[in-house]
């Protein structure tokens, strides 16, 4: 009952704050002016992610006060999320520049989260139990940094990043409960989902506001943090969350590798993701977001459920989930410039 009431309040608060950011965009937001790399055609305020950053952080802290979550873990999650969101906000306002500065702040946030939350001491990898140790900690930091940058890369068409997080968080919350039979382990994911849902009301096509780096990076590191938190309860849940993220991870990874092979700077804005090619082909942002959502529900959720239900090994599930999506990303031109696709 408490989680339900809190979710309703945070959803309304996020929607109201987002609306106010739009109304007062001349004071609180910087306009995103379309250029040749943009997927939108009209100037649109950005930085709307502040709405779900504030509401979800408040929700996490209220859960902490209600003793619903581990104190060290939730404080690490809030601290890391706040640093990433602050860096993103400054970047949105063009108060900081340079990929190196952002990467350092991202790495600091990831280290804080990994130290505060920890890594499962053992993981089942291809039917073998592997001790994670120091290598696991390093991989955990890389995982978090990649996720927060991945969401920034994938936030390029109306509603796609927000709808992805809503799906991953709600599906993750459901599977957490299915495995652990404790609603407390699902509460934080639900709060992230409802806070983001208040924002997507205005971010769905045609978007009236963009989340900006303040929102995309925050979503990435919080989703990563939530996956590590539940992995400490059941290591297989880490594979479950990685499977749920497969659509975004596949597109972003293929795009990044192809751009690096062509010696293109990965942090420079572009329109070479598979989802961006599809948006151009369909002449529609909603169709692409709904296509990704359909893949998530029809393909990834059943595989994740089988892993959570111990009917399928985690790494086997990851391979099954990712292989066709990696092939699809290549087929749809991930990493290729629009002009050459």
Salient structural properties:
341 residues; mainly alpha; two-stranded antiparallel sheet; 4 strands; 4% strand
How does this structure look, described?
- The chain has 341 residues and is mainly alpha-helical.
- The chain has one domain.
- It has 14 helices and four strands.
- A two-stranded antiparallel sheet has the order 1-2. It has a two-stranded antiparallel ribbon with strand order 3-4.
- α7 runs parallel beside α9 and α12 packs across α13.
- The longest helix has 24 residues.
- The N and C termini lie far apart (51 Å).
- The mean pLDDT is 92.
Number of structural units classed as domains: 1
Strand order of the largest sheet: 1-2
Radius of gyration: 19 Å
Mean pLDDT level: 92
Distance between the termini: 51 Å
Give the overall silhouette: globular
Kindly state the number of beta strands. Answer: 4
Helix content: over 70%
Measured by DSSP, the beta-strand proportion falls in under 5%
Q: Low-confidence spans: pLDDT under 50, at least 5 residues?
A: none
SS-based structural class? mainly alpha
Spell the H/E element sequence.
HHEEHHHEEHHHHHHHHH
The major sheet is characterized as: 2 strands, antiparallel
By DSSP (H or I, 4+ residues per run), the number of helices equals: 14
């Amino acid at each position: 009952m408490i989680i339900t009431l809190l979710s309703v309040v945070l959803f309304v608060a996020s929607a109201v704050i987002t609306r106010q950011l739009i109304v007062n965009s001349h004071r609180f937001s910087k306009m995103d002016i379309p250029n040749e790399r943009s997927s939108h055609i009209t100037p649109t305020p950005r930085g709307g992610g502040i709405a779900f950053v504030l509401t979800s952080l408040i929700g996490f802290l209220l859960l902490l006060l209600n003793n619903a979550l581990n104190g060290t873990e939730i404080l690490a999650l809030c601290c890391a999320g706040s640093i990433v969101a602050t860096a993103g906000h400054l970047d949105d306002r063009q108060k900081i520049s340079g990929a190196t500065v952002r990467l350092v702040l991202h790495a600091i946030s990831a280290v804080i989260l990994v130290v505060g939350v920890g890594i499962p001491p053992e993981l089942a990898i291809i039917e073998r139990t592997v001790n994670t140790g120091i290598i696991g900690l390093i991989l955990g930091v890389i995982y978090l940094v990649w996720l927060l940058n991945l969401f920034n890369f994938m936030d390029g068409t109306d509603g796609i990043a927000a709808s992805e997080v809503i799906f991953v968080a709600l599906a993750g919350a459901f599977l957490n409960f299915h495995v652990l039979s404790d609603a407390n382990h699902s509460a934080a994911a639900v709060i992230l989902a409802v806070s983001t849902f208040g924002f997507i009301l205005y971010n769905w096509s045609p978007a009236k506001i963009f989340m900006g780096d303040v929102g995309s990076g925050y979503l990435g590191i919080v989703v990563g943090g939530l996956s590590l938190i539940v992995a400490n309860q059941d290591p297989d849940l880490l594979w479950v969350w990685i499977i749920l993220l497969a659509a975004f991870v596949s597109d972003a990874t293929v795009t990044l590798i192809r751009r690096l092979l062509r010696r293109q700077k990965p942090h420079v804005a572009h329109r070479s993701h598979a989802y961006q090619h599809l948006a151009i082909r369909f002449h529609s942002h909603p169709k692409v977001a709904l296509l990704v959502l359909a893949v998530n529900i029809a393909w990834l959720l059943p595989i994740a459920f089988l892993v959570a239900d111990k009917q399928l090994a985690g790494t086997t599930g990851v391979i099954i989930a990712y292989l066709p999506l990696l092939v699809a990303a290549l087929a749809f031109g991930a990493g290729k410039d629009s002009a050459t696709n």
